[in-house]
């Protein structure tokens, strides 16, 4: 068990194109194909899985992960540009926090030359595409309340991500951060048919059933809901 969070940096499509244009302009050794970058999705983030700092003249070489299969590419960039990239914070509970635009603007310097494993990079892509899918399925609304502010919505895994590889939309529920926390802790449980029941009597909730996705194909899997329910009940009894 690790007790510390770890950090990495990532690109958005826009940042990647900017960095690559700079590499071309500055005639750096490692550049990426412009057509390849143009075809990347705007909805994804592209984490740096490795960075090498041993280069001359304040240059840094980064390895970027482009998809869940682990396709990677190398790009050379100035250390200054590298230091301005947004950070991803990998929490020990398996969640990933992405630094926002506002935070990027108020940048601080961090130690350079860190190495990150490729596994970490893949996980970030996994989280990012899962979130996009699940939020869309639930029309960007919490399944337990009225909240529809995307910045506080979470794609909760029904079977937790560290226990299973299932990143299908049927293993997800879109929740606001508050209901996600209650669901995570087992204070709020969901039965196989979507019925909500409370294991914490201090919580009040307006619905007796979660609000399902628009498309039936996106409904949460009754099987997964059952597995999670069993876990939550055991966990709750132990406490
Ligand atoms: Zn909610």
In brief:
Residues 142-190 form the HNH nuclease domain. With 239 residues, the chain is an alpha+beta fold.
Please tag this protein with its features.
binds zinc ion; alpha+beta; six-stranded antiparallel sheet; 2 domains; 31% helix; 239 residues; two-stranded antiparallel ribbon
What can you tell me about this protein's structure?
The chain has 239 residues and is α+β, with helices and mostly antiparallel strands. The protein has 2 domains: 2-107, no CATH class; 128-237, no CATH class. The chain is built from 7 helices and 10 strands. The chain has helices at residues 13-25, 34-38, 79-83, 101-105, 118-137, 177-185, 222-238; strands at residues 6-11, 46-52, 59-65, 72-78, 87-90, 96-98, 153-157, 172-176, 188-190, 196-198. It has a 6-stranded antiparallel beta sheet with strand order 4-3-2-1-5-6. The longest helix has 20 residues, at 118-137. It is elongated, with a radius of gyration of 20 Å. Residues 101-121 have low confidence and may be disordered. Bound molecules: zinc ion. The site of zinc ion has 8 residues, from strand 8 and helix 6.
Largest sheet: 6 strands, antiparallel
Q: What fraction of residues sit in β-strands?
A: 15-25%
User: Order of strands across the biggest sheet?
Assistant: 4-3-2-1-5-6
What is the CA-CA span between the terminal residues?
20 Å
In DSSP terms (H or I, runs of 4 or more residues), the helix count works out at 7
Report the oligomer: single chain
The figure for the number of domains is 2
Principal-axis shape equals: elongated
Helix content: 25-40%
Q: Based on DSSP secondary structure assignment, what is the total number of beta strands? A: 10
The distinct ligands, each listed once, are: zinc ion
Report Rg. Answer: 20 Å
């Amino acid at each position: 068990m690790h007790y510390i969070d770890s950090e990495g940096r990532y690109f958005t499509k826009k940042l990647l194109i900017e960095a690559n244009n700079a590499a071309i302009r500055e005639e750096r050794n490692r550049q990426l194909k412009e057509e390849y970058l143009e075809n990347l999705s705007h909805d994804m983030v592209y984490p740096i899985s490795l960075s090498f700092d041993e280069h001359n003249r304040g240059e840094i070489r980064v390895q970027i992960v482009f998809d869940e299969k682990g396709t990677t590419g190398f790009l050379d960039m100035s250390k200054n540009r590298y230091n301005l990239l947004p950070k991803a914070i990998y929490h020990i509970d398996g969640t990933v926090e992405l630094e926002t635009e506002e935070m990027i603007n108020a940048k601080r310097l961090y130690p350079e030359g860190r190495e990150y494993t490729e596994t970490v990079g893949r996980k970030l892509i996994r989280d990012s595409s899962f979130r996009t899918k699940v939020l869309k399925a639930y029309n960007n609304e919490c399944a337990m309340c009225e909240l529809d502010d995307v910045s506080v919505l979470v794609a909760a895994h029904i079977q937790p991500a560290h226990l299973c590889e299932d990143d299908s939309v049927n293993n997800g529920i879109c929740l606001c951060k508050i209901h996600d926390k209650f669901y995570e802790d087992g204070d709020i449980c969901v039965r196989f048919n979507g019925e909500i029941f409370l294991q914490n009597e201090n919580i009040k909730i307006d619905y007796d059933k979660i609000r399902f996705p628009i498309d039936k194909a996106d409904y949460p899997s009754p099987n997964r809901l059952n597995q999670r329910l069993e876990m939550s009940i055991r966990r709750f009894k132990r406490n």
